[in-house]
Amino acid sequence: MKTIKISQTLKNIDKYNQLKWARIVSLLARRSTQKFPSRQDLALRVRQVELRFPIPQNPQAVSNNPGLTIPHHPEHIDPQHWHELVVGSAIAPLIAHLNFSSLHFSYVGGEHEAWERPMISDKLSRTNTGSLSIRLLELYSHLDAGGWWCNSGVDPRTFANLSPGEQPQIKEWGCYKPNRPRPKTVKKDGFTVAVEGKFIKYEHPPSVDLSIFLLDVPGVIAQNIYSKAGVNPTDSDRLSGFWYCVWKHNIPITITEGAKKAASLLSHGHAAIGLPGISSGYRSPKNEWGKKIGDSYLADELAVFATKSREIKICFDHETKPETKLNIQRDIWKTGSLLQEFGAVVKVITLPGPDKGGFYSGTGRRKF
After folding, report:
1. How far apart are CA 51 and CA 40, in angstroms?
2. Which Pfam families match (predicted)?
3. Domain boundaries in the chain?
4. Contact 277, 284 (CB under 8 A)
5. What is the model's pTM?
6. What one-character DSSP code corresponds to residue 32?
């Protein structure tokens, strides 16, 4: 595996890219008061705006236009979440619009929307009436305080059996970032105790196998990635979606941790797959006592992209804690080694710090 180090001197946030998307979405918002009924319709409208209002290719021309600002948040994303995603994480507004949503109490359903998203497993403990058990209701009571949800996208395991132009299956799985996260707990002397100052920032559906994030990508960003890779998918391929084209045409991918980082990298023109955790790219079989009983193997969904000669970059956060650094290095080595067994060309991106994920806000984009 080849290691690429990003220079600390590259701290130039790509404001041009953000302003470009700000212009597209703000123009769309002024011309339509309706929600987009489909991904195809959204892509069509974006294309129409780009053709009618061409975006200057010269970044200097854009920076000299004071009228370009981050667009107003859409109806389905709260202002603080929109700011976190678009400003704080450098996610293109259209990608944020397509993949994220703020969840609230539903007066129609009589409960918070957050309970519908993570609680999808048939294995969850329930009462005779079908309601969740008291223990689960108490454990996840913080969901009622609201937060944002991100869908995980399509299931790549369906790609190989698609008919021409057919769209892949959409997964129910995703992640929820609560506004008020619950404390992280550990077992100590037979009791469950909270770890002071530690919280579980992201919730994934309990009692469900972990998945990967293959986020929805608008056509203009998809075309940018195709062009960089030197491929031109057919109309039929494009109907099957961006990730189908990435798979079929062996387009280089980047593996990172989390939905937001994947969304940010996609916004900057990289086909990025998000893992829910640094060790989620592979599975290690264990017995009922938690002891490893077999060889580790690639997670099924990630294995779909482990094809011969495909360039795969692994890019995790910068870390300073010795124990955490060792864990990251271990998981990079394990994931990378398994990818190489399939013939992939693996490279490792090391971020300069001092911020854990400083790169994802735009620093070092050209080197990457």
Report:
1. 17
2. DUF3854 (PF12965)
3. 2-104+146-173+208-361
4. no
5. 0.78
6. -
